[in-house]
Write a structure and sequence with these properties.
With 283 residues, this protein is α+β, with helices and mostly antiparallel strands. It has two domains: 22-144, no CATH class; 157-258. The protein is built from seven helices and six strands.
């Protein structure tokens, strides 16, 4: 008897697997976590399959989605930019700019600009152009704050708690250091208790049997110094944290002012728009 060839149904070694369909490729793209890094990882074929140009959203709907998405990302501090709806030569656009660059999004999906803002806006436009992507709604107060509204940031619960703990450590340490010089003389000045090393001291009408420190005075002083040093270290940490918070807050305020917040003037490199015809763009 002879075995029949190909009876096991195994594919030939040189047989290529079926190519993935565009729908399958689109399902592999994580649109919720899509950013510049994910864009760079896509090949040309994957890009064309995942972003079918026949289904792209354009026009006012695209601008609405881009504006909402950008404002949401600004509110979550994912993007640092001022987002405005404007027009250039009568053509509606979404304008985003900061102290380091700008991006102009047109109704047909074209994006122009420079700097980090352009890098952040491009993935947003790509996502908002797809009907499969749900653009998040921006909060009512979305946007960068006014420089004067930025808090110092030094009133956190953790910082305040550390401050009180440090103060308590210092107070306890000082009391321990002073105890041989204050507690012992007071106790020894009280009448001694017969048959005991204790002394009967009256405090607020109550008689207490107190023992002098004796040889334990040295231990009390050493422990007190330790408490003082530990408390001082905690207070130093609190002071450093507050200085760092103030520095970061002032740095953030300076960035906001450089982006035109507060005085209403856009950076000089932002192109002029219909509402700001006096704007200029660097060559």
């Amino acid at each position: 008897m002879t075995d029949s060839d190909g009876g096991d149904g195994a594919p030939a070694p040189d047989e290529e697997p079926d190519a993935e369909t565009p729908a399958e490729l689109r399902e592999q793209v994580d649109f919720e976590e899509f950013g510049p890094q994910e864009m760079a990882e896509l090949s040309a074929e994957e890009w064309e399959a995942a972003f079918d140009p026949d289904t792209w959203i354009t026009g006012e709907r695209l601008l609405d989605r881009v504006e909402s998405d950008l404002r949401h990302r600004v509110a979550t501090r994912d993007v640092f930019a001022v987002v405005e709806r404007d027009a250039i030569d009568g053509e509606p656009v979404v304008l985003a700019y900061s102290d380091e660059g700008y991006a102009v999004v047109y109704a047909d999906g074209t994006v122009e600009g420079r700097g980090t803002v352009l890098r952040d806006v491009k993935p947003t436009v790509a996502l908002c152009s797809m009907d499969d992507y749900d653009a998040p709604d921006a909060p009512e107060d979305a946007g960068l704050p006014d420089p004067q509204e930025v808090p110092e940031g030094s009133g956190g619960l953790g910082t305040t708690l550390l401050q009180y703990i440090g103060l308590a450590q210092v107070v306890v340490g000082v009391l321990l250091v002073l105890s041989p010089f204050v507690y012992d003389p007071v106790v020894r000045g009280c009448p001694p208790v017969a048959g005991s090393a204790a002394h009967a001291c009256t405090v607020a009408g109550t008689t207490l049997r107190l023992h002098p420190l004796g040889n334990s005075a040295v231990i009390a002083v050493i422990a007190g110094v330790g408490f003082v040093l530990f408390g001082a270290l905690m207070l130093l940490v609190v002071a450093n944290a507050r200085l760092s918070d103030r520095f970061r807050a002032e740095e953030f305020r300076n960035r906001l002012r450089s982006a035109g917040l507060g005085d209403g003037e856009r950076p000089s490199f932002v192109p002029e728009t219909d509402s700001h015809p006096d704007g200029s763009e660097d060559p």
